[in-house]
Amino acid sequence: MFGFASCQLIERDANYVAKEKVWEKISREAPGKGLDPKFVYAICHAESSLNANAESSVARGLMQLTEPAWVDVTELHYRQAFDWETNAEVGMLYLQRLKRALEKNDVFSYPRLAASYRYGYARLRKEKFMVSRMPTPLNRIYRKLFAGDMAPVAPPN
Fold first, then answer.
1. pLDDT of res. 106
2. pLDDT class for 42, splitting at 50, 70, 90?
């Protein structure tokens, strides 16, 4: 299942998408959804390291979407979650939905958007939208996003 390449753990079934391709798609589509492309790009890195085949017990694909999040914003079948472009599109739709929910409550900020994507909107609301009351993420990218760094991963040039 796993192998080592230059001291880096590589998943054999991985399908790493070129960062330039991911950045091109996100930088073109995120602004139309009211999202900062650098923020979305960081979420992709935090969730899957740009592995289109990433899968956990509850989430799939580039942006590690759960089936409930998926069906909340699209009628596409969840089996399409491993197509990186479709996953990015649906992930951005879900981020847009979360952003609108935060804006409706006059509490939008990118750290709150990151927290609601990572832990769920209901959990953030339960904590009175206070990111500081959420568990500290183990992932360093999420820690930076929670702290207000909207671009903890540099996009390709």
1. 98
2. very high
Options 3.20.20.70, 2.40.50.180, 1.10.530.10, 3.40.50.11270; CATH for 14-146 is 1.10.530.10
Q: Is residue 153 within 8 Å of 41, Cβ to Cβ?
A: yes
Mean pLDDT over 49-75 rounds to: 97
E strand map for the chain: 2-5, 8-11, 59-60, 65-66
Residue 100's H or E segment, with its range, is helix 84-104
Average the pLDDT over 35-64 and give the result.
97
What residues contact residue 157 under an 8 Å CB cut-off, 6+ apart?
Answer: none
Domain definitions of the chain by residue range: 14-146
